[in-house]
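so i finally got all the pieces together for this one. its two components total, 229 residues if u count the protein bits. some of the lines might not be protein, just check the labels. i wanna see the whole assembly predicted at once instead of chain by chain like last time, that was a mess tbh
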Amino acid sequence: AQSVTQLDSQVPVFEEAPVELRCNYSSSVSVYLFWYVQYPNQGLQLLLKYLSGSTLVESINGFEAEFNKSQTSFHLRKPSVHISDTAEYFCAVSNPGGSYIPTFGRGTSLIVHP
Amino acid sequence: GAGVSQSPSNKVTEKGKDVELRCDPISGHTALYWYRQSLGQGLEFLIYFQGNSAPDKSGLPSDRFSAERTGGSVSTLTIQRTQQEDSAVYLCASSLGQGVSYEQYFGPGTRLTVT
């Protein structure tokens, strides 16, 4: 069985400040890791994913996440946030040998203040 | 092109009534997924289809829940004798195939409120 823990339900920050959204997972086998973003009144969108190779993955809008196997973490970071980054962020994990249906965390609400 | 659409966007129903939720996937997507998002909870997997068959129904919470897919396209999630704990946002997603290399594209969801 696998599980995902997002340690913060809500993260308020000021515009242009750095942010880190924390994600820890548990799995007895190797994992694939994902971050999804859900903007207000929209469906979830894939932000970035780690499948293999480089442990640092980046999105097109400045977010990055690093797979840390020893700490079983996949934290999401951005050095300078914008108002438009206000959204719900979900971390998810799946297993290469399984059905690939991801297990999602409870989500972190990122609130960017001007 | 058109994304995944779901209808209705909002549904309020009385306890004990049946409801049908509809999902129109992206054209050509063979895999379709249903999830449930309850307040303060993550996404809970319900069922997935490959074509018209459902290889994995493990997430359906009770026999009041059922789903079908016809013509390899539209899917309907039916909840019979709704209960208040069924109140949630029901999300549908589709992908070109079934596997981690195929990105899931999500619809905006149907918000179900059982009074």
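Chain B touches chain A through 26 residues (CB under 8 Å).
Chain B has a mean pLDDT of 92.
anyway lmk what u think
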